[in-house]
Amino acid sequence: MTNRKALVEVLTAASIALATLDASHVNLIAQDDSAKLLQEFTWRSIGPVNMGGRVDDIEAVENAPWIIYVGTASSGIWKTENHGTTWTPVFDGQPNLSIGDIAIAPSNPNIVWAGTGEANSRQSTTYGAGVFKSTDAGRTWTFVGLPNSGHVGRIVIDPKNPDIVYVAAAGDLFKPHPERGLFKTMDGGRNWVNTKPIDEDTGFIDVAMDPSNPLVLLAASYQRRRTAWGFNGGGPGSALWKTVDGAKTWKRVEGGGLPAYGQWGRTGLAFSRSRPNVVYALIEPGDHMIS
Known about the structure:
It contains two helices and 21 strands. The protein has a four-stranded antiparallel β-sheet with strand order 1-2-3-4, with no helix packed on it. The protein has a four-stranded antiparallel β-sheet with strand order 5-6-7-8, with no helix packed on it. It is mostly beta strands and 291 residues long.
């Protein structure tokens, strides 16, 4: 009993000592430990090798993160099922190999959407041929519409209903045409509605869904036009928009520390998944006449 009592007294004293440590000292210890751990990590290439063009998107299956899809600017979609040890091209049979974005349905990882047309439009850019869908994890694909969307910046899928999908379409880079906007389907791609047309030079480059409420979305419109002598990557059409009713209505987001509208360029968006009231917007403000 004496030994047991002594052990209890020692553990109690240790607990009190730990509890009374200065909080800043504890934080410094944690930071030092984290820094030491991170020093051990180095970057290395895991492939795919010999593919063409830039990497435009990387998506992993959340419940099976060793399954990864990579979308490229001009060589389609590559897939790994073993953490990147080996890669397989899964989009080669399609009429267009320029990928703008990939989306995996949260409710069913076998459902994968691909928007064609690289969204990074500069001196060189590759056109798309619309939106495609796979229901067997990339083994086969079906064309589901928006053939003239030009360049797809983002696709988001309702977390509970994989038939509800939003597509941010930037449109043709070199000419005006109507198939620009924030498109929505409620039947898996059989029918589409342009929920926010703006003008013949302005499409949408990004859209993000509130992880706590799929009816709440933020979307970034992007005015742009490429010519033989230069690139106009901004203008009054570029803006930040919000819907709280599943894209039935949109309201432009203004103020609150945002740059003044007029010459916005491209905008990127992301909700914090742990705190959905926190939103990040990467905005290109200012004059964007680039030659």
